[in-house]
Specification:
Layout: E1 2-3, E2 33-37, H1 43-52, E3 60-63, H2 70-77, E4 83-87, E5 97-103, H3 109-120, E6 123-127, H4 133-141, H5 143-160, H6 165-186, H7 190-197, H8 203-213, H9 216-236, H10 240-254
Parallel strand pairs: 1-2, 2-3, 3-4, 5-6
Antiparallel strand pairs: 4-5
Helix pairs in contact: 1-10, 4-9, 5-6
Length: 256
Amino acid sequence: MVGSGLDRPRLPSRRQPLPAETDFQHRIPTADLILICVKPADAPIILATLRNAGLRRDTLLISILAGVSTDRIESLLGTENPVVRAMPNTPAVVGEGMTVVCAGSSASKSHLDRAERIFEGVGKCLPLDEVHFNAATALSGSGPGYQFLIMEALADAGVRVGLPRQLALTLVAQTALGAARMVLDSGRHPAALRDDVTTPAGCTIGGLLMLEDGRIRSVLARAVEEATKIAAHLGSSTSKISENAASHRAGSGSSH
């Protein structure tokens, strides 16, 4: 695994103890799989570092760089290494992640299958055409952020009507978990499930009308649309200057 921004090795997780190192270059020549987890702007530096550290041509590279296409990675790398692009999300830390993957030009089905098996260990993983990756980044990659905001707002609403805060938060979180499970397990459309709980002249329809008055559908759609645009720009933000700087820095580092 290759990361950036680490000032010192972090303590291993209790759930899955793993060693963490900031000096990884000596391990590159023997690695058969490398997971690249850096900021998109750091892609030129990291890829040049891998190449100059003795990267094997058969080493599988799995990238979770938001907005950075497999073509871009292959171009920056300058080798024919198999590349798989992935977009996971933060619920992976509790085994409920949602990840999509796609293969680069040199990656085979076996490479893609291997990546899927890795991410299925922390949730659900689906193959996806790369043309849809920025949209998936905006929807499922950024999605937990939207859900957390919605849950926070609902919990605040519970406090507003007299519930203790922790109780309100528990009610909201468990309700969201249960509703999500119903959608996944039943195969029914969310609108049909919503109708089941919406009785004539009841409190649910009253609350739903207030949400519709607040244009909740269009607000959520605009949020995903804006995040999709930003994801598309992340991959193109690295300039030729940064690529040249990356080659210089990586080359200097390999000479020591």
